[in-house]
Amino acid sequence: MKEIRIGILGFGTVGAGVVEGIQKNGALMADRTGIMPIVARIADLDIETDRGITVPDGVLTTDAMSVIADENVDLIVELVGGTTVARTFTLEALKQGKPVITANKALLADHGEEIYKTARENNIGIYYEAAVGGGIPILRSQRAGLIGNQIESIYGILNGTCNYMLTRMEREGLPFDEILADAQALGYAETPPDLDIDGIDTAHKAVVLASMAYGAPVPMDACPTSGIRGLSASEIVNAADLGYCIKLLAIIKDNDGEVELSVEPALVPKEHMIASVSDSFNAVFVKGDIVGDTMYYGRGAGRLPTGSAVIGDIMEAASDKLHDVGTPVSVTMMLQKDALTYCSGDNIIKRCYIRLCLEDKPGSMAQVMTIFGKHNISIASVVQKERHESGSAPVVILTQAAKESDFVAAMTEIQALDVSTSEPIRMRLEDFE
Ligand SMILES: NC(=O)C1=CN([C@@H]2O[C@H](COP(=O)(O)OP(=O)(O)OC[C@H]3O[C@@H](n4cnc5c(N)ncnc54)[C@H](O)[C@@H]3O)[C@@H](O)[C@H]2O)C=CC1
Ligand SMILES: N[C@@H](CC=O)C(=O)O
Ligand code: NA
């Protein structure tokens, strides 16, 4: 039986989940692979807090660098989070020839190119399954099971916190802040949770998925991002009345060689499988040119689900190291090209949900419709709600597919109309066709 001696940096939610998982199933992993995982060292700035599991004396330290340098540690698991010390620890471990496993999507999104290149230069691996979709083996599916496919599109619910919050807002109509506090207590949310609710965490994951799908580092500014902050209960009710629910989606598509990439709240049909993905669950739909449609579903956050993905990477890294694989596919796939080209407003075609507030008087709607017509936007349905005491009435419009640039121009003109009494709301309507 071979042994792999693991150094863990960060003994928080995920770090403790990894140790718990190895304590529970380490012998099973050894039976299956012939490699026994041993947690040799754990570094955390706080080694006093009870993490709910016991580790042998001498394993814990506050000094992460000493764990990286320890010659009895074969590989490093980076679970401190953030992009400063995590970057330093990761690069240092790679330079010392130690494979790195990380769950840190922010680190990969901001410094991925430097990290993958350092791994390649040192002929070593970096593994990051937990960074996207938590416990779902989505990256392993992409780089193994789907390796023979051109990726046509990926749609993902990638943030457990937002999906949990949207689910409870829809089901229980509870206030945003109260539900966010619950998501934090359950260990789903980032620190600070703004990363979740402003869509940035989803964008971190989307750029990692897009890099792997299309073979080059993707900068964060290539991913227009909006989150669920400020999403009102009335939008959720309006969507439900029309047969839709609202999900925070990552959208990644190949549009004739250009990559369409965004993170945005979108209306999805209630009968589509993605609408039934609730609570902290994540789901990823991948369409390949050979395989067709595939779907992956599971827990996107939390101690043990995320720990499961990290453990999977530990065992793969151990096997690669013992078999002297060198630079693995998880590195080479991200560095096939220098850069990608991205779609702009003229070649992004989509449907939209639009909610306006119009003065309830003759001609208001006609002015709006004239603007849509002028910008080649065809209307699928219009519902005017009861007018408010103020004399204006909410109007909910679903459009047919049109160019993003035409939507932008039309919305600017509509907002400037005298009859438009508050800022219009516009969201993507995604019917996956
Ligand atoms: N919590 C979750 O469900 C998921 C988290 N992740 C990612 O996993 C990583 C870890 O997340 P959590 O475990 O939730 O965070 P956490 O905040 O619970 O744990 C981080 C731990 O690192 C320690 N730490 C910070 N700086 C350190 C340093 N310089 N040296 C040693 N220890 C240090 C902290 O004291 C803390 O105990 C993050 O990158 C996060 O984005 C990824 C998927 C899911
Ligand atoms: N904060 C993230 C944690 C997992 O990546 C989430 O809510 O999904
Ligand atoms: Na994953």
Automatic annotation (TrEMBL):
PROSITE patterns: ACT. NADPH binds at residue 105. Its EC number is 1.1.1.3. GO terms for biological process: methionine biosynthetic process; threonine biosynthetic process. The keyword rRNA processing does not apply. The active site is at residue 205. Residues 353-428 form the ACT domain. L-homoserine binds at residue 190. Keywords: Amino-acid biosynthesis, Methionine biosynthesis, NADP, Oxidoreductase, Threonine biosynthesis. GO terms for molecular function: homoserine dehydrogenase activity; NADP binding. The keyword Oxidoreductase applies. Belongs to the homoserine dehydrogenase family. This is Homoserine dehydrogenase. The gene is hom.
